[in-house]
What we know:
Helices cover about 50% and strands about 10% of the residues. By secondary structure, the protein is of the alpha/beta class.
Amino acid sequence: MNYALFLGCNIPARVPQYEAAAKAVLKKLDVGLFGIDEFMCCGYPMRNIDEFVFLVSAARNMALCEQAKKDLLVLCKCCYGSLKMAEFHLKQNQDILENVNAVLAKEDLVFRGTIVIKHFLSVLHEDIGLSTLKTHVKVKFKKLKIAASVGCHALRPAGVTKFDIPAAPTLFDDLVNLTGAKSIDWSKKSECCGAPLLGINDAVSQSIMEKKLSNAKQAGAHFITVACPYSFLQFDTVQSRLAAEDTNWKTLGPVLYPQLLGLAMGIDSTILGIEINQINIASLESYLSSEDDTKEK
Protein backbone atom coordinates (compact mmCIF):
# COMPACT_ATOMS: atom_id res chain seq x y z
CA MET A 1 0.00 0.00 0.00
CA ASN A 2 1.25 3.42 -0.91
CA TYR A 3 -0.51 6.76 -0.39
CA ALA A 4 0.10 10.46 -0.81
CA LEU A 5 0.04 11.88 2.73
CA PHE A 6 -2.02 15.05 3.19
CA LEU A 7 -1.18 16.86 6.43
CA GLY A 8 -3.22 20.04 5.99
CA CYS A 9 -2.31 23.30 7.71
CA ASN A 10 -2.77 22.68 11.44
CA ILE A 11 -0.81 19.47 11.94
CA PRO A 12 2.66 20.69 10.88
CA ALA A 13 2.21 24.00 12.72
CA ARG A 14 0.37 22.99 15.89
CA VAL A 15 0.14 19.20 16.28
CA PRO A 16 3.42 17.78 14.93
CA GLN A 17 3.10 14.75 17.22
CA TYR A 18 0.10 13.59 15.18
CA GLU A 19 2.26 13.40 12.06
CA ALA A 20 5.13 11.73 13.94
CA ALA A 21 2.89 9.11 15.57
CA ALA A 22 0.94 8.34 12.40
CA LYS A 23 4.14 7.93 10.36
CA ALA A 24 5.67 5.67 13.01
CA VAL A 25 2.60 3.43 13.05
CA LEU A 26 2.30 3.28 9.26
CA LYS A 27 6.01 2.48 8.91
CA LYS A 28 5.55 -0.52 11.23
CA LEU A 29 2.64 -1.62 9.03
CA ASP A 30 4.75 -1.32 5.86
CA VAL A 31 2.52 1.41 4.43
CA GLY A 32 4.38 3.63 1.98
CA LEU A 33 3.87 7.39 2.15
CA PHE A 34 4.51 9.70 -0.78
CA GLY A 35 5.15 13.38 -0.13
CA ILE A 36 3.82 16.11 -2.40
CA ASP A 37 5.44 19.46 -1.62
CA GLU A 38 2.92 21.38 -3.74
CA PHE A 39 -0.04 20.50 -1.50
CA MET A 40 -1.94 23.55 -0.24
CA CYS A 41 -4.95 24.26 2.03
CA CYS A 42 -7.86 21.82 1.68
CA GLY A 43 -10.12 24.82 1.04
CA TYR A 44 -12.23 24.47 4.19
CA PRO A 45 -11.76 28.05 5.48
CA MET A 46 -13.27 29.37 2.24
CA ARG A 47 -16.14 26.88 1.97
CA ASN A 48 -18.83 29.24 3.24
CA ILE A 49 -17.21 32.42 1.89
CA ASP A 50 -16.31 31.68 -1.72
CA GLU A 51 -17.35 28.22 -2.91
CA PHE A 52 -15.38 28.43 -6.17
CA VAL A 53 -12.13 29.25 -4.38
CA PHE A 54 -12.82 26.37 -1.99
CA LEU A 55 -13.35 23.96 -4.91
CA VAL A 56 -10.23 25.10 -6.78
CA SER A 57 -8.08 24.69 -3.66
CA ALA A 58 -9.42 21.20 -2.92
CA ALA A 59 -9.35 20.12 -6.57
CA ARG A 60 -5.73 21.19 -6.97
CA ASN A 61 -4.67 18.86 -4.17
CA MET A 62 -6.58 15.97 -5.69
CA ALA A 63 -5.23 16.74 -9.16
CA LEU A 64 -1.69 16.57 -7.78
CA CYS A 65 -2.47 13.08 -6.44
CA GLU A 66 -3.87 12.05 -9.80
CA GLN A 67 -0.71 13.32 -11.47
CA ALA A 68 1.38 11.24 -9.03
CA LYS A 69 -1.02 8.27 -9.41
CA LYS A 70 -1.44 7.99 -5.66
CA ASP A 71 -4.57 7.67 -3.53
CA LEU A 72 -4.84 10.25 -0.76
CA LEU A 73 -4.39 9.51 2.96
CA VAL A 74 -5.68 12.34 5.16
CA LEU A 75 -4.98 12.77 8.90
CA CYS A 76 -7.33 15.69 9.60
CA LYS A 77 -11.05 14.92 9.64
CA CYS A 78 -11.86 18.49 8.66
CA CYS A 79 -9.59 18.19 5.62
CA TYR A 80 -11.06 14.78 4.86
CA GLY A 81 -14.64 16.13 4.93
CA SER A 82 -13.63 19.16 2.89
CA LEU A 83 -11.92 17.14 0.15
CA LYS A 84 -14.77 14.64 -0.01
CA MET A 85 -17.30 17.48 -0.28
CA ALA A 86 -15.35 19.10 -3.11
CA GLU A 87 -15.01 15.76 -4.90
CA PHE A 88 -18.77 15.25 -4.63
CA HIS A 89 -19.64 18.68 -6.07
CA LEU A 90 -17.12 18.42 -8.90
CA LYS A 91 -18.44 15.04 -9.97
CA GLN A 92 -22.05 16.23 -9.81
CA ASN A 93 -21.74 19.48 -11.77
CA GLN A 94 -20.05 19.47 -15.17
CA ASP A 95 -20.09 23.27 -15.52
CA ILE A 96 -18.29 23.77 -12.20
CA LEU A 97 -15.83 21.02 -13.10
CA GLU A 98 -14.95 22.71 -16.38
CA ASN A 99 -14.48 26.10 -14.70
CA VAL A 100 -12.27 24.61 -12.00
CA ASN A 101 -10.19 22.69 -14.53
CA ALA A 102 -9.74 25.89 -16.53
CA VAL A 103 -7.94 27.36 -13.52
CA LEU A 104 -5.94 24.18 -12.87
CA ALA A 105 -4.87 24.06 -16.52
CA LYS A 106 -2.59 27.05 -15.86
CA GLU A 107 -0.41 24.63 -13.89
CA ASP A 108 -0.92 21.72 -16.31
CA LEU A 109 -3.21 20.03 -13.81
CA VAL A 110 -6.64 18.48 -14.28
CA PHE A 111 -9.16 16.97 -11.86
CA ARG A 112 -10.74 13.76 -13.18
CA GLY A 113 -11.89 12.21 -9.91
CA THR A 114 -9.84 9.04 -10.31
CA ILE A 115 -8.12 8.87 -6.90
CA VAL A 116 -9.56 7.59 -3.62
CA ILE A 117 -9.62 9.84 -0.53
CA LYS A 118 -9.11 7.95 2.73
CA HIS A 119 -8.90 9.07 6.34
CA PHE A 120 -6.11 7.56 8.44
CA LEU A 121 -8.63 5.55 10.49
CA SER A 122 -10.28 4.14 7.36
CA VAL A 123 -6.92 2.99 6.02
CA LEU A 124 -6.29 1.14 9.28
CA HIS A 125 -9.78 -0.35 9.52
CA GLU A 126 -10.52 -1.16 5.88
CA ASP A 127 -7.29 -1.33 3.89
CA ILE A 128 -5.02 -2.92 6.48
CA GLY A 129 -7.81 -4.60 8.44
CA LEU A 130 -8.38 -5.42 12.10
CA SER A 131 -6.99 -8.95 11.88
CA THR A 132 -3.67 -7.72 10.45
CA LEU A 133 -3.50 -4.86 12.97
CA LYS A 134 -3.93 -7.31 15.84
CA THR A 135 -0.82 -9.21 14.75
CA HIS A 136 1.19 -6.00 15.22
CA VAL A 137 -0.06 -5.37 18.78
CA LYS A 138 2.78 -6.35 21.09
CA VAL A 139 1.41 -5.26 24.48
CA LYS A 140 -2.23 -4.66 25.32
CA PHE A 141 -3.85 -2.14 27.59
CA LYS A 142 -5.75 -3.58 30.54
CA LYS A 143 -8.51 -2.03 32.63
CA LEU A 144 -8.30 1.09 30.45
CA LYS A 145 -11.49 2.91 29.48
CA ILE A 146 -11.26 5.21 26.48
CA ALA A 147 -13.82 7.71 25.17
CA ALA A 148 -13.44 7.76 21.39
CA SER A 149 -14.49 11.12 19.96
CA VAL A 150 -15.46 10.34 16.38
CA GLY A 151 -15.38 13.83 14.83
CA CYS A 152 -18.09 15.66 12.91
CA HIS A 153 -16.58 16.32 9.50
CA ALA A 154 -15.82 12.68 8.76
CA LEU A 155 -19.33 11.54 9.66
CA ARG A 156 -21.60 14.06 7.98
CA PRO A 157 -23.06 14.22 5.41
CA ALA A 158 -22.82 10.43 5.33
CA GLY A 159 -23.68 10.18 1.64
CA VAL A 160 -20.65 12.32 0.83
CA THR A 161 -18.01 11.27 3.36
CA LYS A 162 -18.89 7.54 3.49
CA PHE A 163 -16.74 7.18 6.61
CA ASP A 164 -19.10 5.45 9.06
CA ILE A 165 -22.75 5.38 10.12
CA PRO A 166 -23.46 8.76 11.81
CA ALA A 167 -26.26 7.45 14.05
CA ALA A 168 -24.23 4.51 15.33
CA PRO A 169 -20.53 4.74 14.39
CA THR A 170 -18.39 1.73 15.32
CA LEU A 171 -15.20 2.08 13.25
CA PHE A 172 -13.29 4.04 15.90
CA ASP A 173 -14.53 1.74 18.67
CA ASP A 174 -13.15 -1.28 16.80
CA LEU A 175 -9.74 0.35 16.49
CA VAL A 176 -9.62 1.30 20.18
CA ASN A 177 -10.73 -2.15 21.34
CA LEU A 178 -8.02 -4.00 19.42
CA THR A 179 -5.41 -2.31 21.67
CA GLY A 180 -6.97 -4.06 24.68
CA ALA A 181 -8.58 -0.84 25.92
CA LYS A 182 -12.36 -0.65 26.20
CA SER A 183 -14.08 1.96 24.05
CA ILE A 184 -16.87 3.14 26.32
CA ASP A 185 -20.42 3.98 25.33
CA TRP A 186 -21.10 7.70 25.83
CA SER A 187 -23.89 9.84 24.42
CA LYS A 188 -21.76 12.70 23.05
CA LYS A 189 -19.15 10.67 21.20
CA SER A 190 -20.39 11.83 17.77
CA GLU A 191 -21.11 15.44 18.75
CA CYS A 192 -19.06 18.53 17.86
CA CYS A 193 -16.06 19.33 20.07
CA GLY A 194 -16.63 23.08 19.69
CA ALA A 195 -13.48 23.78 17.64
CA PRO A 196 -15.26 25.46 14.67
CA LEU A 197 -16.47 28.21 17.02
CA LEU A 198 -13.11 28.87 18.65
CA GLY A 199 -12.07 32.43 17.83
CA ILE A 200 -15.63 33.31 16.81
CA ASN A 201 -17.53 32.64 20.01
CA ASP A 202 -15.10 31.27 22.58
CA ALA A 203 -17.75 31.01 25.31
CA VAL A 204 -19.95 28.70 23.22
CA SER A 205 -16.92 26.75 21.98
CA GLN A 206 -15.76 26.20 25.55
CA SER A 207 -19.25 25.26 26.72
CA ILE A 208 -19.58 22.59 24.00
CA MET A 209 -16.18 21.17 24.91
CA GLU A 210 -16.92 21.17 28.64
CA LYS A 211 -20.22 19.30 28.15
CA LYS A 212 -18.52 16.73 25.95
CA LEU A 213 -15.71 16.17 28.45
CA SER A 214 -18.14 16.02 31.36
CA ASN A 215 -20.16 13.35 29.54
CA ALA A 216 -17.02 11.28 28.89
CA LYS A 217 -15.95 11.58 32.54
CA GLN A 218 -19.40 10.54 33.76
CA ALA A 219 -19.23 7.49 31.49
CA GLY A 220 -16.03 6.45 33.28
CA ALA A 221 -13.37 7.35 30.73
CA HIS A 222 -9.75 7.46 31.85
CA PHE A 223 -8.67 9.22 28.64
CA ILE A 224 -10.27 10.61 25.50
CA THR A 225 -8.88 9.69 22.08
CA VAL A 226 -9.18 11.62 18.81
CA ALA A 227 -7.92 11.44 15.24
CA CYS A 228 -8.33 15.08 14.28
CA PRO A 229 -6.02 18.03 15.05
CA TYR A 230 -8.93 20.40 15.73
CA SER A 231 -10.47 18.12 18.35
CA PHE A 232 -7.05 17.49 19.86
CA LEU A 233 -6.36 21.22 20.20
CA GLN A 234 -9.70 21.65 21.97
CA PHE A 235 -9.08 18.86 24.45
CA ASP A 236 -5.35 19.50 24.94
CA THR A 237 -4.61 23.21 24.49
CA VAL A 238 -7.94 24.77 25.50
CA GLN A 239 -8.53 22.31 28.34
CA SER A 240 -5.02 22.90 29.73
CA ARG A 241 -5.77 26.64 29.74
CA LEU A 242 -9.01 26.04 31.64
CA ALA A 243 -7.15 23.87 34.16
CA ALA A 244 -4.64 26.66 34.73
CA GLU A 245 -7.46 29.14 35.34
CA ASP A 246 -9.54 26.83 37.56
CA THR A 247 -7.73 24.72 40.17
CA ASN A 248 -10.87 22.58 40.57
CA TRP A 249 -10.87 21.60 36.90
CA LYS A 250 -10.12 17.90 36.46
CA THR A 251 -8.52 17.29 33.09
CA LEU A 252 -9.33 14.31 30.90
CA GLY A 253 -6.10 13.58 29.07
CA PRO A 254 -6.45 13.49 25.29
CA VAL A 255 -4.43 10.98 23.32
CA LEU A 256 -4.13 10.92 19.54
CA TYR A 257 -5.16 7.51 18.27
CA PRO A 258 -1.82 6.72 16.60
CA GLN A 259 -0.19 7.43 19.97
CA LEU A 260 -2.53 4.91 21.63
CA LEU A 261 -2.03 2.29 18.91
CA GLY A 262 1.69 3.04 18.74
CA LEU A 263 2.20 2.24 22.41
CA ALA A 264 0.35 -1.06 21.96
CA MET A 265 2.61 -1.81 18.98
CA GLY A 266 5.66 -1.30 21.18
CA ILE A 267 6.74 2.04 19.70
CA ASP A 268 8.63 4.31 22.10
CA SER A 269 6.57 7.17 23.56
CA THR A 270 9.25 9.69 22.54
CA ILE A 271 8.87 8.70 18.89
CA LEU A 272 5.10 9.07 19.27
CA GLY A 273 5.55 12.60 20.62
CA ILE A 274 3.58 11.96 23.79
CA GLU A 275 5.72 14.40 25.80
CA ILE A 276 4.68 17.18 23.37
CA ASN A 277 1.05 16.97 24.51
CA GLN A 278 0.31 19.88 26.84
CA ILE A 279 -1.75 17.71 29.18
CA ASN A 280 0.50 15.01 30.64
CA ILE A 281 -0.69 11.53 29.65
CA ALA A 282 2.41 9.64 30.81
CA SER A 283 0.18 7.56 33.10
CA LEU A 284 -1.32 5.97 29.98
CA GLU A 285 1.65 3.58 29.84
CA SER A 286 0.84 2.29 33.33
CA TYR A 287 -2.22 0.55 31.83
CA LEU A 288 -0.06 -1.54 29.48
CA SER A 289 0.39 -5.22 30.22
CA SER A 290 3.86 -6.70 29.97
CA GLU A 291 4.90 -8.46 26.78
CA ASP A 292 5.04 -11.75 28.73
CA ASP A 293 1.45 -11.25 29.93
CA THR A 294 0.30 -10.76 26.34
CA LYS A 295 2.04 -13.95 25.20
CA GLU A 296 0.47 -15.94 28.03
CA LYS A 297 -3.00 -14.78 27.00
